[in-house]
Amino acid sequence: MKQLLIFLTIGILLFSCSSNDEEIENAQNNAPLITKMSPYGLTSENQSGLYTYFEYDNAKRLTKKSGNFIEINPRTFYINEICTSLEYDNNIVTVENFTTLVGKSVPKESIYITLNKSMQIEKKEIPNGYNNSWYRKLLYYYSDNKLVEIKTTFPNTPYTFPDNYLLTFSEKFYYDSNSNLSKTEYFEQRNSINKGEKIVRIFENYDNSINPLKRFYLLDQYFYGSISKNNYTKYTEIHYDDDVETTKHESSWKYLYDEKGNILVN
Fold it and tell me: May I ask which residue range the UniProt record assigns to the signal sequence (predicted)?
């Protein structure tokens, strides 16, 4: 009888894990294959005439993004020939910048991403070509298939001025009852104690549309927007220094929808 109960328990756990993996995979596979979009995101208007272009492989995985903003002080320019590639090798994804402009080059800014069995980000490594002390490693933690924390670490070198401490960062994620991201809290940590910089991001006024950005979760530009089931239309970002508010930015916008209530991608 005990053996039967053990086998039943194991079977339930395996079925639960399999169902969760399938749920995540289905959400990603059912996301639209966006091939062209405004560089400003899912905005309701795009009067600039500029577009970002996307390409995919046979498995519907994002492989290329064409178009990026660059800063040439004091101005910012949008150039379609500055691109980002995503190359897949089993569960490792390499994300790098390149340009199709003849005779030109851009910094690769390489990022190496490790995916788990559910195709969620498990680890992200970001080298620094100028100073190895700033080689960042980000570890992603999940609960019930929702991202709950990202921990950022650096090489284990203590800072010597003004105090000896190990620098890390932690960002925690919170959700509403509809599985939509409601808030994140990003903390600077010194010897694992919250101290210094803190950033609170608040996501509000969600619609009922499917999320068109699900396939873009490997790109930092779209990461927060890709997490939720639906789409937020109000965003607030508050910066603190040792719990003293220093800056606050708030923005809101509207989307255009089709007859089924889903976002029209410009």
Answer: 1-21
